[in-house]
C-alpha cells in the first residue's frame, strides 16, 4: 500500500498546536494527529453488497495549566488558534487534578524502534472483490451449507504523529489487511451460522481465501442439530476464539484505571496469586509485526515487554502517567489515546502456552463442554461474577460427541483464573492471544 501520509505536514501541524497552546497560556501541552485510510468490499450470493472507502484526519490537543488539564479534539482543518485558546480556557476552568502531567522526559522514546508495521502492497478494490467472492464460493461448496451470510475483504492503514512541549516528536504508520466469511447450514429454525476470518499487518501473511471460506462452512455444518446439556457442574474447555475474551477480562481487571476507580475485582491483589500456578501472562508493545505493537505509547513513552502475571502471581498493572501517579507508581508505557484523553491499555497480550495439546486436554475428560461461542453481557468486573450464554460441543469419553446450544455457563472470574490450564496451541497473531483454555468447576444451566 503506497504511503499517503504526508509526515512533514502532520509533524508541522502538531508542533504548531503545541506552540500555539503555550502562547495561549498553557504551562505544558501535547498534541496528536491521526490520519487513516481504508477500503473494503463485501459480497453475498455472488454479488457485491457494499464497497466502502474512508479517509479521516483527526487531531487532539491536551493542555496543562498548573494542576488543571483539558483536552479537545477536532479535524485537521480546524482553526489552530481557536482550538488552543479554547483548550486553555477549559483547563483554567477545570478542577485541579494533581496526577495529570506530561510523561517524564527521561522515559520518552527518543529513538523509536522499527517494528515493521507497514506493508506497501497495494490492493485494488477489484482484488478485494475477487477475494471476497472466492471465500464465499468456498463456503458454499461445503456439503451441508445452505446459504451465505456474506464475505468481505479490506485493506487499510493509519498513521500517528505525537508532539509534546518537552520537545518530543514521534511518528509511526501501520497497515492492516483482513478477510472474513460467514456461512449458514440447515434450514428454517434449525439453521446454524458460523464464520472464519484473518487479519494481519502484512498482506502476504493472511490466511488463504479458500481456507477461510471452507472453515466458515465446516464450522456452520458442525453446529447442526444441537442439543441442550443437563444443568450441573462442568469442566469447560474454551476454544481460542472464545478464550481471547477470557484474556480480555483479565486485562481489564489488571488495568490501573480500574484499580484506581476501585472497579476491579483484583484491585487488592498486587503481588498475590491471581491465577493457577503455571499461568504466565505477557504484554509486549515492541513485538515486530505485532497486531497491537507501537514504538511508543500515547504519551511518547517507550514501553517494554512485561510479565504481567508470573506463575500465577500478579506483578504489574497497565499504567499511563496519570493513573500511575494516582497509584504512587511510574508509567510502564501503556497509555493510549482515547478521544482526547489518555488511558492505560494492554498491547500484545498473551496467556503463555502450557505443555498439553488440546487433543490430550479433551481426551482426558470423561465429560465436559467445549465452548466455541459465548454471548450476552453477563460479566461484572467489580465482583468478578461471570455468566454467559454459550454454544459448542459436548465432550464424552474424550471426544467431541455432539453440538450443544441454548445453555449458560457461570462462575466467578477469580475462581476461573485459579482453575485455568492452558494448552500448547497459542497463536500470537492477535493483539490478545491465548491458547485453548480448560477451566474446572464452572456451572452449566441447561435442561
Radius of gyration computed on alpha carbons: 24 Å
Extract low-pLDDT stretches. Answer: none
Q: How many domains?
A: 3
Note the run of SSEs as H and E: HEEEHHEEEHEHHEEEHEEEHEEEHEEE
CATH topology of the largest domain: PmbA/TldD fold
Provide the CATH top-level class of the largest domain.
Alpha Beta
Query: What would you say the CATH architecture of the largest domain is?
Result: 2-Layer Sandwich
Distance between the termini: 53 Å
Shape: globular
Q: TL;DR?
A:
By secondary structure, this protein is an alpha+beta fold. The protein contains nine helices and 19 strands. The chain has a six-stranded antiparallel sheet with strand order 3-2-1-4-5-6.
Summarize the structure in words.
- The protein has 447 residues and is an alpha+beta fold.
- The protein has three domains: 7-220, PmbA/TldD fold (2-Layer Sandwich), CATH 3.30.2290.10; 225-245 and 354-445, no CATH class; 248-351, no CATH class.
- Helices cover 22% and strands 37% of the residues.
- The radius of gyration is 24 Å and the shape is globular.
- It starts with 6 loop residues before the first helix and ends with a strand.
